[in-house]
Please model this.
Amino acid sequence: MTPFTYRKGESHYHRLDPRYKLIMLALVSVSVLQAAFIPLLVFSAALAQAMVRVGIHIPTALKHLKFFFLLLLLIFLARTVSEQSGDTLFKIYKLQVTTGGIRLGVLTAWRFLVVMLAGMIFSRSTRPSQVKSAAQWFLKPVPFIPEKRAAVMIGLAIRFLPLILQQAEELSLARKARGGDLRKNPVKRITELAVGLMKKSFRTADQTALAMAARGFSEDRTDPSFHPSRLDAAYLVLTGTTAILLFVC
Amino acid sequence: MVFTDPNRLPPLLQVEHVSHHYPDGGTSVSNVSFNVCKGEFIVLAGANGSGKTTLLRLLNGLLHPSAGDIRYRGKPIIKNPEHTRKHIGMVFQDPDTQIVGETVFDDTAFGPENLKLPREEIDKTVHATLDSLGLGHMKDRCPSTLSGGEKRRLALSGILVMHPEIILLDEPFSNLDYPGAAGLLQLLEFLNRDGITLIAATHDVEKIIDKAGRMIIMQNGTIVADGPPSLHVQALEQYGIREPCASRYGMKPADWVNGRKRP
Model:
């Protein structure tokens, strides 16, 4: 169970229509990437409150993002040395670190963090089947894409990802039990693990296809149902207004 | 539990001289014939590689016989696979490969969605099925977080929600601990008493033999014995199947569940 895993709840975010939620997430993600310091600070405070409301424990969530923070550090460093405005703080060979560079580095990393946290709120408050249904709804008007098949594929990916990770863990432990970790060549180690995992995954896929056929799988299935309410409209207007303010201010 | 003479009631399922060959020429099932009547509880016993799983897949219409004919209520099953799979459900050996939904509710709804039932009807029937199997409070749980016994019950609920007449079970007790196996056994007994015909393929006959009214033993793709379990139980070991403990000591096979101590 991670902060990205769906958990049942009674918050407004849990009750919103998944299609509206996806639109809101897209609006927030685009506008945040243009936001300045003060609007971003205000939005981050609102986001923190939303995280608490959907039942995310913020320190635990940040702990789960430790590898993401490494990526943010790289983004920060890249942006810092690429911006030369402001006073020079220090210089390493040809790389010059300026106040403007640090400001831009912090801002860029912060924006990415906010997008990640918004995604966390979305996945925490939306059942995977709702995500699948919303994706099916959005794909319906797109020509040459069988939206029902795509939805089933999304659903299977969500379902089988933990199983594949579990199988990878088992294979890795089985290798270790036979002294596999004594092998120094990392390429060989990864190849051995990948081959075993692929064999297992293909076998599982084969069995799953049979099991789906046994349960009468058909692409002509019952469509998902949506029940949009005034709450969805209100949240969409609020998010739209926030997105414009983040963009403009 | 009912023992039914196959010749007494009109058969629900008729298997006539069925054979199945693999594309490489190997034979998995050879000239198999038997009838299944409504309400029967059949143990399909056999060692690994005896053809039990292939036979179950033939009965569900997942595989086509190379020769012979399988009829459900008088109609060939391969001509109407959708109808067959609605009425003949199959629970696979590994529930992890059978469970396709992201939550317990979604997985149970998979079958009715394939039947294109209206959403309201799906919600109603899924809730009723989950409640009847004691899974109602877990409906929003991710299947990967369930125990082995709960996963097996979920796999069964995905079948029961389609109101089948026959349920085929492939090694139903594999990877189950004692409480999980006992719970499943009680559930199977209840379903059979409710009129559902059960065919359970297993090499572990001890758990199930006293519930079944008939035992079919397979070896090398053929049926070598068919009749009341008491008639063939002592011959099991010659076909590579362990004889139940009670039978070895000259007693009748005991109730595997009620023999346990309750807390």
